[in-house]
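stuck on this chain:
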Amino acid sequence: MLEISRTSLRVRQKRMITLSKKRKENAARQANNSHSSPKAGDNSKRVSVRDMLLRKEVPEMDANLPACCTVQYEDVDKLHSLQLTVEPEEGYWRGGRFIFSIYVPEEYNIVPPTVKCHTRIWHPNISEDGKICLSILREHSVDGTGWAPTRRMKDVIWGLSFLFTDLLNFDDPLNIEASEHHQRSKSDFEAKVHHYVERYAKR
C-alpha cells in the first residue's frame, strides 16, 4: 500500500494526469489512509461546496466526454483547474488541436467556470486573444440559455466542443471581423481558418 502511495506522488509531481488515472490514484490513497490512525489534535481541512460538487461531477464528465476531447489536470488535488484539448474531426477547424484552460471559482455552481482558449484561432465566437462567447458561460442571460445551478461541468465541455460544429454562430459574433469575413467570402474565410490551423494548431 505504501508503494501505491509513492507511485501516486511521483505521477502527481512529474506529469499531468487523465481523469481516469486520477480516480485510480485517489482510490489508492483512500485505501492507504484507511489503515492509518488519526493523530491527536489533527484538524481536517474543510472541503468547499465547489470541491464536493466537482468530486461528484468529475466521474460523470469523464464518462461523457466527446470523442474529440481530452481533459487533464496539473494537480490531482485541484479539480477546479483543468485543461481541455479539442481536436475537431469535422468542420472548418478539423485537423487542429485547440487548448482551453478552465477554472472553477469558489462560488460554483452559482457562477459558471471561466474559460480561455490558448490556441490562436480564426473563429467568430472566439477572439484571437482567447476570449470565448458561449451562452452557457454567461452568468446572466435574458434568453434562458446562460448559466444556471442545474448546469454541470460536462455541459461546459460539450458546449466548448460544439463551438466547432453545432454552436458555431456567425450572427452573434465575438470576433466581428471573422464573422464579416465569412459573410463576404466563405472560401476566403475557410482559407484563413486553415492557415491558422496549420500555423498555430497543427496536431
User: Anything to note?
Assistant: The two ends are 39 Å apart (CA to CA). Strands lie at 17-18, 69-73, 81-86, 98-103, 114-117.
